[in-house]
Amino acid sequence: MNPNPGFMGNNRMSPLPAKRPARGSIWSMYKRMFLHVRAQWLLMATAFFCIIAVSLLEFAIPRLTQLTIDDIIPNQRYGSLIWIALGVLGTALLLGLFNYLSSLLMASVGQRAVYDIRGELYRHIQRMDIGFFDRNRTGDLMSRVTNDVNMLQQLVSSGMMSIVTDWFTFIAVAAYMLWINWQLTLIVLATFPLMLITTQFFGKRMRAAFKKVQETVAEVSNHLQDTLSSIRLIKSFSNEDFEAERFALRSESNMKANLHAVKTRAVFEPFIDLLLFTGLAAVLLFGARFTMDGSMTIGTIVAFMAYLRLLQNPIRRFSRTINTIQQSAAAYERIVDILGTEPQVADAPDAIELTHAEGRVAFDNVSFAYHNDVPVLTNFDFEIAPGKITAIVGSSGAGKSTITHLMTRFYDPQEGTVSLDGISLKRLKLASLRSHLGIVSQDIVLLNGTIRENIVYGKHGASDEEVEAAARAASAHDFIMSFPQGYDSQIGERGVKLSGGQKQRISIARAILKNPAIIILDEATSSLDTESEKSIQDALAHLLEGRTCLVIAHRLSTIQQADTIYVLDKGVILESGTHAELIAGQGKYKQLYELQFPQKEAAAPVAELEPPKKQFTR
């Protein structure tokens, strides 16, 4: 997955590999669900009572059948037939009622568990560091939060109730059958160890097969996310057919994975049925002999056959439910893979709150690499003075954006210290650190919603007056009011209904509303035309007034009024000074300037970042 494009560079790897958690078992899956629903113990107790009632009522109809055959029919008790019929109908009604209640209650408990697990997973993903998102694609994470959790929902909503009911019924019926005729019951139960072995054998294979299904679903989601978010690029190159073929390949992989899972299940279920019919054949063979010998009545053998059906139904249903269980177990493994991964950049146990920032940022002997064998910064020393404009220029790959990544603590350096006002960033709480930082970049990140919602994202709960003041300071109010709905106008996904300059001014308004102590401008105007750039420069002048500012730029016209300019190349500072000093130095900076402005005098002053007279104070 690509990280938020607003302030990321071209490097896409985390400094350290992610820790892989241990696989989750079925029992751990149920344990986690129980932890989520333990507060609903009253609902669970009521559901369990209904399950016990269903299991006990299952005994009634076979018992009434035996009574009819062995007593009522031989003794011609015509008057008792109506009571037998009423007993059967009453039992059926009670079974329906208790089944309804148990299904409803278990579904309610199960849905709460799934709701909590999905929320836990989403919150955990939100806590992860940027390196995590470098390693994981968006579509895969979406699949885990949606498809994988939905697999658990199937299990909790229907599978859990079926498992609890069936196991209780199985134990109760087996005990009763042993009391009726222990010899026949032991003959039937002799087939069950083989069923357990078979279930274990096929269960492992089905779990692996369904995990492959979930992985291929994630690949389909990845492709959809990539192509739908890049639809303009696809259409501009007329690559619709090419992308359709790529999608077909991923969809074919998903189809084959599903067919393999179905094939495994298709072999398992008939094998279980064969073992069940083997038990039935044994009961018919030995039961008939016992009846002919006079040791069993006809009613008893008929009732025993009915109890055998009750005993086998849980096994038959479980052989079907195992499909859902293994799907859920495979999905659960993918979920705990995420939940078991801890962020590499997180608050220290003794982290302190940053309540005020002067804005002095220092890099002390910092070494950092996205790949362990490809250093970006080595023994790097650098300082940003408070209340001043500091600029960094250099070619692509020089390490400019890496400096902003370390300042915002998206990553931690492998060696050295990055500090703010003399305090190491690792000693500061992340939320408080970032609350003092404002970032305006070339690649603007806007949410699908209204203009107001995007501006107020910088300060939740801001009043309409504050939003408008920020928009005016960003030179955005006039174009916003030109829309029919003004601040309530929808901007589309990633601001597709706005021009580049309009999107940039909204992002500046958002930063102004946040009112940070430190501003980072990461190529904020490099993709704009001259007219738009002039409007943005006016807006930026409001934003920078009285604040510490770091400017990353290719266009040297945007930084000539900076207090200090650093020239960076391959992680090394080649030279530093004011614009005039660097021009006089005849170094790398002058070469870059002459390439961009071959017809200008090198020392010509530019005042594009000069603050306006009207101030937007902090």
From TrEMBL:
The keyword Membrane is annotated on this UniProt entry: yes
Broadest EC class assigned to this enzyme: hydrolase
Annotated membrane topology: Multi-pass membrane protein
EC number: 3.6.3.-
Keywords, comma-separated and alphabetical: ATP-binding, Hydrolase, Membrane, Nucleotide-binding, Transmembrane, Transmembrane helix
Chief location bin: membrane
Lineage of the species this protein comes from: Bacteria, Bacillati, Bacillota, Bacilli, Bacillales
The name this protein goes by in its record: Subfamily B ATP-binding cassette protein MsbA
Gene3D superfamilies: ABC transporter type 1, transmembrane domain (1.20.1560.10), P-loop containing nucleotide triphosphate hydrolases (3.40.50.300)
The ABC transmembrane type-1 domain, residue ranges: 45-327
Membrane-spanning intervals of the chain: 41-61, 81-102, 160-179, 185-203, 266-288, 294-311
Localization of this protein: Cell membrane
Annotated ranges, domain ABC transporter: 361-595
GO molecular function: ATP binding; hydrolase activity
Keyword Nucleotide-binding on entry: yes
